[in-house]
Design brief:
DUF2909 domain-containing protein; transmembrane helix; membrane; mainly alpha; DUF2909; 77 residues; 2 helices; 66% helix
Length: 77
């Protein structure tokens, strides 16, 4: 459930990024759609960092890197 929310926020951030790029090149009006896109992207980034931090703190997300202290090395004997 948490990983689906994180993936959804990340996809929403990418959509906001590309919509901001579109507004930068094609929006010649005085509307502040580029600024609104940036504000939305910052909000989504803060939510993404918060959800990731919550996932690590609650134990729902665990590091799976080989150098992580949580993984146990396998011994070949």
């Amino acid at each position: 459930m948490l990983s689906a929310a994180i993936i959804t926020l990340f996809i929403m951030m990418l959509i906001s990024l590309f919509s901001g790029l579109y507004f930068l090149f094609h929006d010649s009006s005085k509307k502040h759609r580029l600024l609104t896109s940036l504000k939305l992207r910052i909000l989504l980034a803060v939510l993404l960092c918060g959800l990731t931090l919550y996932g690590f703190m609650s134990g729902q997300i665990t590091p799976k890197a080989p150098w992580s202290s949580h993984s146990s090395p396998t011994q070949n004997t």
